[in-house]
Amino acid sequence: MSARDWIDKDFYGDLRVSSDASADEIKKAYRKLARELHPDANPGDAKAEARFKAVSQAYGVLSDANKRKEYDEARRLFGSGSFRPGGGGFPGFGGGAGGFDLNDLFGGVQGGAGQGGIGDLLGGLFGRRGGATSTANRAQRGNDVETDVRIDFTEAVKGATVPLRLSSPAACATCGGSGAKPGTTPRVCGGCGGAGLVSRSQGAFAFSEPCRDCRGTGRLVDDPCPECGGDGVSTRIRALTMRIPAGVDDGQRIRLAGQGEPGRNGGPSGDLYVRVHVTPHPVFGRSGNDLTLAVPVTFPELALGATMTVPTLDGKVSVKVQPGTANGRTLRVRGKGIQRREGSTGDLLVTLQVAVPTRLDTDAEQALRAYAEATKGHDPRSELHDLLGKDEVG
N or C: which end of the chain has fewer CB within 10 A? Predict the structure, then answer.
C-alpha cells in the first residue's frame, strides 16, 4: 500500500470507532466485526471477505501504538487539500519549475503498517538521515494477531489440544515471501544501490526520499509472483493446533510465539494471542482452583447424619455428613479440584442444600406432624426474639 493510500484510508471508520477510541474499544470493535465477517461465517460472500480484509488491515495499524501515532500525524498533516499528496505541496514550492511536488515524494513511499511510511518521508524532508539503509529496507517484525476459541468446561479443567483456522496475512506460499515468481529472485535496485533511499537537493533544502524505482525496498522484482503480485504476502486460511493447559480460565489469553503475521525483509513473525472462552458446566462450577458442586439432601440426612456419594470429574467419592449439619454447609473433598500445570491441585467444595418435597403422601405427612409435635418446644427463632424483641418476630 502506498503512503497516499494509507493516508486516504479511514481506519477508524472501517472499525466503526471514533478517532479518540481507547485501545480496548478498538480491540472490542475488531473482535466483533471479525467474528461477523470471517470467511468461515460467510462462505462465498465476496463483500464480507473484502470487509474482513479491510477490518484486519485497520486493526493492524490502530492496535499498534506507534503505527497509530504515525497514522494520526499523517492524517493531521495531509488531511487538507493544501498540504496533501497530490494537493499542491508546500506553500511556495509548487510542482512546477523552481519548486518540488509532493507527488514526487509520495509516488515512491511504501507506507502502511510496518513499512516505513510517513516517518521516513518526514525524516527525509527535514534532514533526518537514516544512514545507508531506509526503514522500509530494514528487517521488521510482523504484527501480532488475536483470535478466539471456545472449549467445554472439562477441557478447561484437564487441558486440551484444539484446532485453529486463521484467515490472516502470511508469507506467500508460492514465492516463499520473496515476491518473485518461483525460479527467479529479486535483484538489487541500481537506482539506490539497495539502500532504498536517494538524496536530492532543492535550493536551500537537502533531503533523502524513498527511491522511486524500488519504492524504498532496495530491490526490484522483474517477474512478480502470480499469487501475491510481488508483495510477498498473501491472505490465506491456515490451520494449526494448539495445546490449552489444564486449569485455563475463561477469558484468558494464551500466547503462541511466532504464529502471527510474517515479518518484512527477513524480520521475525509476530505472535498469535488466543483468547479462550469456556462453556459453563451443567453441574460443576469453579472458584479459582476449586470445583464447586451443590448437592440436594433431605432433612433427616442433615439431622441424623449420612454418608452420600457425590460425582467428580473423575468418577465418584463418598462424603460423610455429621449429625446436626446445617443447611448450606460446604464440605471440602481434598485433591478433587483443578490440577494446574505447575503442580498445585484444588479441592471439590460440596454445598448441601435441603430439598423440600412438593407433595407428601399420608404416611409421610403423619410422620412429619408427629415430629413437629415432638419438637414443638424447640424455637429455631429464639435468637431473633432475643435480639429484636418478641413482639417483632412471629
Answer: C
